[in-house]
Specification:
It is a single chain. This protein is of the alpha/beta class and about 350 residues long. It has one domain: Luciferase-like domain (TIM Barrel). About 40% of the residues lie in helices and about 15% in strands. It has twelve helices and ten strands. The protein has an eight-stranded parallel β-barrel with strand order 1-2-3-5-6-7-8-10, surrounded by eight helices. Helix 1 packs parallel to helix 12, helix 6 packs parallel to helix 7 and helix 11 crosses helix 12. It is globular.
Length: about 350
């Protein structure tokens, strides 16, 4: 699991859009001047539409102490989404395991799986998803180190599956997750989790929506380190991408300035206080030239356009990554525009 993956970009079999599942990533964004309650209602509405449009999964992500993201209590939000839908899989994209005792996560996700059987995914990340001070507040005994992640993962996996024979001992048990199977995914934005997922034979989800520059490195690491397991016989990689779709290229370019403003605040170190803001006619005057270059570099893999452009670039994205599944993030201010973006993707990407 150590070292860089060998060789050049791995050649992958070309896949057609209709043969690859598409899913939704949601951070429950809080619009400027609005409340988390409104963000949650918009998330549920989006999930209900996504279900009707044939999306495979609806994942929400854990972030803390960020004014623009409402999904901090990820498992609670998942329960709300699952209760309001019927068939779409609901998962974490992801839960940041170092913030929690593995037993707590097992109990939460065992409860969710018991309530909504066959619909729950457990995606795990090893970053704190927040600043160091907040990470300390989450774990009163001090934040867990990222290098402890494999050990925590092993403990967590032990709480699922067959019950331990306790006649001669009194092991710690997670009663809700005992005898249950909840698919565990490893999430990452570099090659560490990719190699660990491959070594353990688990599915891997890459955060291409904000770390596009590491995509091939991570996917190569995952595929080259993959070992068949009881979970998977072949590697299975889901890749995240930002998509802003509209009726015309020009309208999509306009709507995409919302995500550009978000990334601008990110590189300025202000993401904790930033909320989702409306699109603007031009970004000129809002960023310096070096900031513009940095933002556009971070968003290089984003797909922005009308239906024809989106269809073409989605296929190009699939060709370049060989993804087995794509999970789509849409940083779009107005809820109706966000819904329409996912609807356009569903139309150009029939399942």
């Amino acid at each position: 699991m150590n070292g860089e993956p060998e060789g050049d970009v791995e050649q992958v079999e070309r896949k057609r859009l209709r043969d690859v599942p598409r899913s939704v990533l949601d951070l429950a964004p809080i619009q400027a001047g609005r409340t988390p309650a409104e963000a949650f209602r918009r998330s549920l509405d989006l999930a209900q539409h996504a279900e009707r449009w044939g999306y495979t999964r609806y994942w929400v992500a854990e972030h803390h102490n960020m004014a623009g993201i409402a999904s901090a209590a990820t498992s609670v939000v998942m329960g709300y989404i699952a209760a309001g839908t019927a068939t779409i899989r609901v998962g974490s994209g992801g839960v940041m395991l170092p913030n929690h005792a593995p037993l707590i996560i097992a109990e939460q996700f065992g409860t969710l799986e018991s309530l909504y059987p066959g619909r729950i995914d457990l995606g795990l990340g090893r970053a704190p998803g927040t600043d160091p001070m907040t990470a300390r507040a989450l774990r009163r005994d001090g934040p867990t180190r990222a290098r402890d992640f494999p050990e925590m993962l092993e403990e967590l996996r032990g709480y699922f599956g067959p019950a331990v024979d306790s006649r001669d001992s009194t092991p710690v048990r997670s009663i809700p997750s005992q005898d249950l199977t909840v698919p565990i995914w490893l999430l990452g934005s570099s090659d560490f989790s990719a190699q660990l997922a491959g070594y353990l034979g688990l599915p891997f989800a890459f955060a291409g929506q904000f770390a596009a520059e590491n995509t091939q490195l991570a996917l190569n690491a995952y595929r080259q380190s993959f070992q068949p397991s009881e979970v998977l016989q072949q590697p299975y990689a889901m890749v995240g991408v930002n998509v802003v779709a509209a009726d015309t290229d020009e309208e999509a370019d306009f709507l995409s300035t919302t995500q550009q403003q978000k990334f601008l605040q990110m590189i300025r170190g202000r993401i904790q206080t930033a909320q989702m803001v409306p699109p603007v006619n031009t970004m000129e005057g809002l960023w310096e030239e070096h900031e513009k270059e940095a933002v556009l570099s971070r968003l290089a893999s984003s797909i922005v356009g009308g239906p024809d452009r989106v269809r073409e670039r989605l296929q190009q994205f699939l060709d370049s990554t060989g993804a087995d599944e794509v999970i789509i993030n849409a940083e779009i201010f107005h809820h109706a525009d966000r819904l329409h973006s996912y609807e356009i993707v569903a139309e150009v990407w029939p399942q």
